[in-house]
Amino acid sequence: MTEPDRHMLRNVRLLFLCQALQNAAVVGQVAMGSLIGFALASDKTLATLPMAIQMLATMAASIPASMVFARLGRRAGFTLGAFGSMAGSLIFAAGIWQGDFWLYCLGAVPAGLGFGIGQHYRFAAAEVATPAYRPRAVSLVMAGGVLAAVAGPELVKQTRDLMPGFLFMGTYLILATLPAICLVLLSFAEIPPPPPRTGVSTPLSAFLRRPAFVTAAVTGAIAYGTMNLAMTSTPLEMLACGFGISASSTVIQAHAVAMFLPGFWTGRLILRFGALRIIVAGALLNTAFVAVAVSGETFTHFVLGLVCLGLGWNFMFTGATTLLAAAYAPAERFRAQMLNDLIVFGTVACTAFGSGFLHAQAGWVVLNLVLLPAMAAVVLMLVWRIRRAPALA
Fold first, then answer.
1. Are 306 and 251 in contact (CB under 8 A)?
2. Residues 310-324: pLDDT tens digits?
3. Which of 102, 307, 329, 378 has the fewest beta carbons under 10 Å from its own?
């Protein structure tokens, strides 16, 4: 292995760890957020509002993130994101301490900003890797969520009663330390500086006229949005079925492992079979989730269904990210990534709020059946894309 290759792998591993720390807080929030919202909100249809606000902030983060990354570089942007995540966890804790639902919702704003900026670790991985290694680098950094999948729910289980009388408050205080560790790791990473500014920016509308960009962005939005729709209400449905916090945390843990563990191999699968085939495989796995979810509500049904949903998300979202990397020139990357995240996390924000509303008004079965037309739309869009560019098949 050459010296440049060793540097590349070292940087990818550091980004892997940073992504893991970032996602640990988010996975923990998924396990807690709707339950805390349900406990604090007088109107129970607002139980998933904190998650919706967090995803709106994640979407909004793409604009300042793009500006900071373009002007000051990736390191400055990731530092800003770490401080946002830290502030979010502390405000969440304050909301629980005060028993104030709206203060708790306020914590979702900086937490969402931090999460939105942290989503760019996968783009940073594509930039530090050689073109041949790029799909594997992206999938490996996304696989940092495996550590998060284990650590996030486990932290919830072990620290939920750390502060007697204030359920989950101690958990948020622990989660506030993770971004600080991330900052230490970033200090050792070698990240390319921002490209020289040319003074000419590609109009955002130009990206929307590129079939490659539209395919990547819409696939990513459907992959993340549908997964979030079902995942966010899972703890609420399990609570309604008589399961406790430990059981729902275990299910979310299994789901998160399924989301990120395939990242160690998804890049190789994409290199062998192509991103489009992997995306279709993900859509089929999500369809399998719906079949399991509507067939019963035992613990086994929840675990098996959420594992299928996690695997489907991984295949679809990694495939979409790989397609996106080929949809813009290097000088366009920040604006393209900004627009992509606006589309993806705008969709996720809608599904986060819609999840609580659909669950309360229509029930678990209807909520999951909504995924089927979305999966059909992805497959139809890929057929359209292949017809426009047969070589992609």
1. yes
2. 999 999 998 998 888
3. 329
pLDDT exceeds 70 at position 200:
no
Q: How many domains does the chain have?
A: 1
| pTM of the predicted model as reported, rounded to 2 decimal places | 0.74
Cα dihedral across residues 307, 308, 309, 310: positive or negative: positive
For residue 351, report the phi and psi dihedrals to the nearest 5 degrees.
Answer: -75, -30
**CA–CA distance, 267 with 119 (Å, rounded to integer):** 18
Which domain does 354 fall in, by range? 3-189+204-392
Task: Kindly write down the DSSP assignment for every residue of 242-290, as one continuous string.
Answer: T--HHHHHHHHHHHHHHHHTTHHHHHHHHHHH-HHHHHHHHHHHHHHHH
Q: Is 246 a domain residue?
A: yes
Helices (H), the chain: 3-40, 49-72, 74-98, 101-118, 121-128, 134-142, 145-159, 169-175, 178-186, 204-208, 211-240, 245-260, 263-273, 275-293, 299-325, 333-361, 364-369, 371-388
pLDDT digits (tens, 9 = 90+) for 168-185: 899 999 999 999 999 999
Has residue 231 been placed in a domain? Answer: yes
| 40-59 confidence digits (pLDDT tens) | 988 887 887 888 888 888 88
DSSP state of 295: T
Residue with the two structure tokens 């396990």: 31
d(C-alpha 76, C-alpha 363), whole Å = 44
With respect to residue 106, please indicate whether it lies within any of the assigned structural domains: yes
> Which residue's entry shows tokens 């937490």?
111
Longest Cα–Cα distance in the chain: 62
CA dist 288 and 284 (Å) reads 6
Which CATH number is 10's domain given? 1.20.1250.20
In terms of Cα–Cα distance, which of 3, 266, 20 is closest to 137?
266
Residues in the chain: 393
> Are 136 and 80 spatial neighbours (Cβ–Cβ below 8 Å)?
no
Using alpha carbons, select from 125, 134, 158, 118 the residue that is nearest to residue 28: 158
Roughly what angle, to the nearest 10 degrees, separates helices 121-128 and 74-98? 160
User: Is residue 293 within 8 Å of residue 305, measured between CB atoms?
Assistant: yes
In terms of Cα–Cα distance, which of 227, 20, 225 is closest to 122?
20
Asked if 234 and 306 touch (Cβ cutoff 8 Å), the reply is yes
